């Protein structure tokens, strides 16, 4: 059985909710990622959301806000989603499809150990699985 751990990429990094979006953008650049899980104030292992590079551009810069003054916590909205490292691929796809999300943090013993992105799905799953995922995630609501 292929699990979330098998297809995730390691090295996912938290950004604290109080950090500014310019710092978030720098972290994304430095780690070569497009998303960062946001940790609760004073609780490194409690996720309050995820921010993406697109969120920073659309919800901050394009809206006239200053990324050096707006925080990661201010940008988060909705309920954060994640999956256990032992979950099978079908559970990963279901979680991502049902919530129409493109990135999914992977946890083990309540600790962030990785992230699953579109690229990870493309690398590890069949063309049919990826096509089915994309159809559901990208379909118009």
TrEMBL record:
Gene3D superfamilies associated with the record: CBS-domain (3.10.580.10)
Domain (CBS) ranges: 8-68, 70-132
Keywords assigned: CBS domain
Alphabetized InterPro entries for the sequence: CBS_dom (IPR000644), CBS_dom_sf (IPR046342), Diverse_CBS-Domain (IPR051257)
Protein name, as recorded: CBS domain-containing protein
Organism field: Streptomyces mutomycini
């Amino acid at each position: 059985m292929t699990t979330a751990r098998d297809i995730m990429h390691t090295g996912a990094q938290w950004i604290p909710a109080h950090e500014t979006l310019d710092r978030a953008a720098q972290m994304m650049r430095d780690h070569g990622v497009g998303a960062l899980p946001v940790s609760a104030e004073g609780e490194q292992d409690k996720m309050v959301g995820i921010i993406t590079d697109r969120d920073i551009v659309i919800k901050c810069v394009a809206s006239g806000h200053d990324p050096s003054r707006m925080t990661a916590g201010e940008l988060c909205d909705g309920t954060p989603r994640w999956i256990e490292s032992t979950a099978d691929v079908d559970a990963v796809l279901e979680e991502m499809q049902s919530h129409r999300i493109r990135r999914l943090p992977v946890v083990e013993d309540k600790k962030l150990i990785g992230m699953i992105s579109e690229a990870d799905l493309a690398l590890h799953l069949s063309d049919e699985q990826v096509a089915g995922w994309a159809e559901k995630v990208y379909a118009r609501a």
